[in-house]
C-alpha cells in the first residue's frame, strides 16, 4: 500500500513538472525554432491558413453577405497608415491588362448600389453604402485575352511611392455578385481618404483586400503578391 | 486488487490536452484583441494598453520589427502584445481545431461511457450548489465533498456540465466571427458581427473565471484529488 502510494505520488509529480516546466519551456523553444519562410512567418502557419482556406472554399456557400438598409450606413475609418494620396482625377487611368480605362469608361457599366459591412482584420467594422460596377460585369465588358485564376490589384499613384499598396485575390471571390469596383460611398463620389476615384469593395474579404485608388488590375496564373500576406497575414483572408 | 480509477484514462488525457490548448487560445486571442482593443458598444468601452513589454534574455519575438512604430529592435522583447495580430490569428485559427476536436471527443466520450451521469445536474442541484458555494466561501475549510458513492457535489455538477456549454459558446461565436459572410444567419442570430465579438470575449471571461475557481478549489481539495486527475487514483 505504501509502496503503491509512493509510486502514484512520484508519477503524478513527474507529470506535473513535465507539463508545467517542460511544456512551457518546450513551447517557447518550439516557437523560436519553427522553420520560417522568407518573410519570417512560420511555414506551419502558412500551411494551417492554406488548410482553412481549402475548407472554406469547398464547404462554405458562395452566397451573398448580409445587406443592410441604406439608412444604417456610416463613414468608415480611414486606415491609410501614411499620408492620403491625392491625385489628379482627370488624368487617372486604370491599367487593365494593358488597356487604359477612364472613370467614364467604367461608368458605362451598370451601376450597382449595396449597403454592406466592411470588416477590418483588426476587429472594427462599419456598415457602408457603395455604388459601382460588379467586377463580373467589368470582366464581361472588357474581356481579357487569357483566363487566369488570380487577380492582382495595385495602387501605385505617381508621387506617392510611400503609400503604394497591392493585393492578390482569387478570381472566384471577385466573381461573386457583391464584389464591386466602386466609385461612390454613401451617395457621394469617393473622397481621397476612401480611395478616389476607384476602389474595390468585397464584403466577403477583410478590409485589407478592399484596395483603394486602384491604378492597375492584371490577371495572373500564380498567386499575386499581397501587401499584408507578405507581412504574415492569411493570403485568402476570406470571411 | 486494483479499484477502478477515479477518472478514466480518456478523461485524464483530454483534460490535460485541453489545458495548454486553451492557454494558447487565450494568449493568441489576446494578441488579436490588442489590434483593436475596445468593443464599440453603447454601454461600455473596454480598453487595454497598447503595448506591454517583457524582456526575456534578448530572445527575438516572431514579428515586431517592421510594424513597430516605437522603433524598438525586434530582438529586445518577446512578449509585447501590440502589433502581433497576424501571429495571433495564425495561432488562433490553427489551435481552434485542436480545441474543437478535443472538446468533441470529450463530449462523445462522456455520452458513450456513461460518465455524463456523474456531472449532469440534478433537480435540486442549483439550490444545493448555492449552499455548497456559500459554505465554501464563508467557512474557508475543506471544500464540500460529494455524497457517499458520488463523484461530484452539486456545485461541481453545475460547473463541469456548464463549462461544456461555455466551450460550445466559444466555438459558435468564434465561427461567426471568423466567417461572418458565409455564416451570416448565425451572425444575425447572435445580434450582429460586433455583438458576436463581444459575446466571444464575454464567454472567454467566464472560462477564465471558471479556471481560477477550479484551480482554487483543486488547491484546497489537496494533493490526492489533484493526483486523481493525473494517475487516476
Regarding quaternary structure, what we see is: heterodimer
Our measurement of the CA-to-CA distance between the termini of chain B, rounded to an integer number of angstroms, reads 13 Å
Overall outline of chain B:
globular
Percentage of residues assigned to helices of chain A: 25-40%
Q: Mean pLDDT score of chain A, rounded?
A: 90
Uncertain parts of chain B: 49-69, 72-78
Alpha-carbon distance between the termini of chain A? 59 Å
Give the spatial strand order of the biggest sheet of chain A: 2-1-10-5-6
Strand content of chain B: under 5%
Task: Specify Rg of chain A, calculated over alpha carbons.
Answer: 24 Å
The geometry of chain A reads as elongated
Q: Describe the biggest sheet of chain B?
A: none
Structural category of chain B:
mainly alpha
Proportion of helical residues of chain B: 55-70%
> How much β-strand is present in the residues of chain A?
15-25%
Task: Tell how many strands the DSSP assignment of chain B holds.
Answer: 0
Number of helices of chain A: 5
Task: Please tally the helical runs of chain B, counting DSSP H or I stretches of 4 or more residues.
Answer: 8
Short description:
The complex is a heterodimer of chains A (239) and B (233). Chain A is α+β, with helices and mostly antiparallel strands and 239 residues long. Chain A has helices at 2-33, 43-59, 103-106, 135-141, 171-174; strands spanning 94-96, 99-101, 112-119, 125-134, 150-155, 165-170, 180-185, 188-189, 199-201, 216-220.
